[in-house]
């Protein structure tokens, strides 16, 4: 797959260009329906499949006072788009000047003159042009006049609820990561760099990797079960995406007998302020089960896939009481992840 920063001039492309267009934050099941339609249509026509997305997220440019935490930072979004089968990902730089284009100018200057589109796939709620005046019906009208067709994808509905980035954000904010996974089509994944901490986990007998999260939405405070992938951010062929750990060649057994890809570890994840120690900074830390030592991880990039919330964060009367609870948490994490692995893959591999 080719990543292109800025809108290219595709006048030299001989194949019909079929694009999926949107912000695609989360690359959730609703987005995947749009993307799959574009890949399918490109296959039928022998064309080029292309995802057109925008960076930074338009909300951050148009409403900078309203902070927006991302579901998928750019490197992860690109990898997910690649794993969906897209041949090219075009990242248009979103600026106020870009946003000021009229819907007609956007269609002619970007889609027609530069991308030379033959077909465009968008969601039912897609907006474009100045003041978000462009709607899919207008895009269809402009496309007909310009010589390209438009496919408007209806929303995906699960459990009587429309799959959307805003709905997933609400679930993650409440700590309902298992429910969010249904909408995403995979676990919620966070990227982070391992930084030095206060060493409290080491003192308690459960060393942790303290993470500086990327610019993403943190789940609600609490303890979670999840999978941790070492040293993978961006690019292809690793981490947790549409394929994830299931497609790695080398595997090893965890303590409970679950077979996982090399470089993937079970994780007991804590998000919160560590109230037992009267701290106030919100942090994310991960205890990697069966990992030989967290010290060697400093500076590494980790990917953390949240599977289920084990419990809420609470205050303990002593360090000994907290240590006893962590031991119970680790047991609960092992049990939860073993069940997930069996459910997803017949008991021998981790499928995300």
Structure description:
The protein is α/β, with parallel strands linked by helices and 352 residues long. 30% of the residues lie in helices and 26% in strands. The protein has ten helices and 16 strands. It has helices spanning 29-45, 58-62, 74-83, 96-99, 103-112, 136-146, 165-173, 177-184, 200-204, 319-345; strands spanning 2-5, 17-21, 48-55, 88-93, 117-123, 149-153, 157-158, 161-162, 188-195, 209-213, 222-230, 251-253, 259-261, 264-272, 283-288, 301-311. Strands 1-4-3-2-5-6 form a six-stranded parallel sheet, sandwiched between helices. A hairpin with a 2-residue loop joins strand 7 (157-158) and strand 8. Helix 5 crosses helix 6 and helix 7 (165-173) packs antiparallel against helix 8. Residues 241-250 and 346-352 have low confidence and may be disordered.
Short description:
With 352 residues, this protein is an alpha/beta fold. It is built from 10 helices and 16 strands. Residues 241-250 and 346-352 have low confidence and may be disordered.
């Amino acid at each position: 797959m080719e990543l292109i920063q800025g809108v290219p001039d595709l006048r030299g492309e001989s194949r019909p260009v079929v694009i999926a267009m949107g912000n695609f934050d989360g690359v959730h099941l609703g987005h995947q329906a749009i993307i799959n339609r574009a890949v399918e249509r490109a296959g039928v026509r022998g064309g080029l499949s292309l995802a057109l997305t925008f960076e930074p997220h338009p909300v951050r440019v148009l409403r900078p006072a309203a902070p927006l935490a991302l579901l998928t930072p750019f490197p992860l979004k690109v990898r997910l788009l690649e794993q969906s089968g897209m041949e090219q990902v075009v990242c248009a730089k979103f600026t106020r000047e870009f946003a000021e284009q009229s819907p007609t100018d956007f269609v002619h200057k970007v889609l027609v003159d530069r991308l030379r589109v033959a077909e465009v796939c968008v969601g039912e709620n897609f907006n474009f042009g100045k003041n978000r005046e462009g709607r899919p019906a207008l895009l269809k009208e402009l496309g007909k006049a310009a010589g390209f067709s438009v496919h408007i994808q209806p929303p995906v509905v699960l459990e009587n609820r429309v799959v959307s980035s805003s709905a997933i954000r609400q679930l993650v904010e409440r700590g309902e990561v298992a429910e969010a996974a249904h909408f995403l089509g995979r676990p919620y994944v966070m990227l982070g760099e391992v930084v030095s901490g206060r060493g409290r986990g080491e003192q308690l007998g459960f060393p942790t990797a303290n993470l500086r999260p990327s610019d993403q939405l943190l789940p609600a405070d609490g303890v979670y079960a999840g999978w941790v992938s070492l040293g993978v951010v961006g690019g292809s062929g690793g981490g947790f995406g549409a394929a994830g750990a299931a497609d790695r060649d080398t595997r090893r057994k965890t303590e409970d007998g679950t077979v996982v890809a090399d470089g993937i570890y079970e994780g007991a994840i804590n998000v919160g302020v560590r109230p037992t120690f009267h701290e106030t900074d919100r942090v994310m830390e991960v205890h990697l089960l069966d990992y030989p030592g967290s010290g060697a991880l400093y500076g590494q990039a980790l990917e953390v896939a949240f599977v289920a919330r084990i419990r809420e964060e609470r205050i303990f009367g002593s360090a000994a009481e907290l240590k006893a609870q962590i031991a119970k948490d680790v047991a609960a994490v092992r049990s939860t992840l073993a069940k997930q692995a069996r459910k997803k893959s017949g008991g021998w591999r981790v499928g995300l």
